[in-house]
Amino acid sequence: MMNIDEIFKEQALKDLKQGICKVTFTKANGETRVMHCTLNESELPPQKHIEEEIQKKKPNPNALAVWDVQKKDWRSFRWDSITEFSTGFNV
């Protein structure tokens, strides 16, 4: 049986692959960061393939690399630092 964290991660990945999500999290330095991000291939630059980009990042099961639609670059957040997650954004 999956625990709550695994269920959340699975749903969050599904949401990120479908569209733009707003993730609020606490950065390592203690600052709060709000990021509009996605894993939806239609939102990524054409020359970037999602699996290749994810693989370039150091594999870390505690963090997720996502496309920041405002900064137009790859960013990541730690799962345990998320304070808010919402879906359905157009930026």
Which SSEs are present, and which pair or pack?
Blueprint: H1 4-18, E1 20-26, E2 32-38, H2 50-56, E3 63-68, E4 73-78, E5 82-89
What brief labels describe this structure?
single chain; alpha+beta; 5-stranded antiparallel β-sheet; 2 helices; 37% strand
Written account of the structure:
The protein has a 5-stranded antiparallel β-sheet, covered by helices on one side. The model has no long low-confidence stretch (mean pLDDT 87). The N and C termini lie far apart (36 Å). Strand 1 and strand 2 form a beta hairpin. By secondary structure, the chain is an alpha+beta fold. The protein contains 2 helices and 5 strands; from the N terminus they run αββαβββ.
Task: Provide a compact summary of the structure.
The protein has 91 residues and is of the alpha+beta class. The chain has two helices and five strands; from the N terminus they run αββαβββ.
- The proportion of residues in beta strands is 35-45%
Q: With helices defined by DSSP (H or I, 4 residues minimum), what is the helix count?
A: 2
Largest sheet: 5 strands, antiparallel
| General form | globular
State the distance separating the first and last CA atoms.
Answer: 36 Å
What topology, given as strand order, has the largest sheet? 4-3-2-1-5
Mean pLDDT: 87
Assign a percent range to the helix content.
10-25%
Structural class from helices and strands? alpha+beta
Q: What gyration radius follows from the Cα positions, in whole Å?
A: 13 Å
N to C succession of SSEs: HEEHEEE
- The low-confidence runs, each spanning 5 or more residues with pLDDT under 50, are none
Number of strands: 5
